[in-house]
Amino acid sequence: MTTSDWRKTLKQLKAKPTKLQKYIKHNQPKQRTSGQSTVKCQRCGQHRGHNDKYGLDLCRQCFRQIAQQIGFKKYG
Asked: What is the pTM of this model?
């Protein structure tokens, strides 16, 4: 039962309900309440480089692409 995706293993364990419950308890990905993976860019879904200032919820790459369209000016 060495698979990369935990859901593939569930098919193998359906015949063994007690082992299935134990496997789910210990190997299911947990829901995050804080940290980098809880916040996503609304435009592309990326987790890294997130900017939520002014309620934008965009990553830095998407912000650079649409900054002038939403009213920001580039200085320098």
From this structure: 0.55
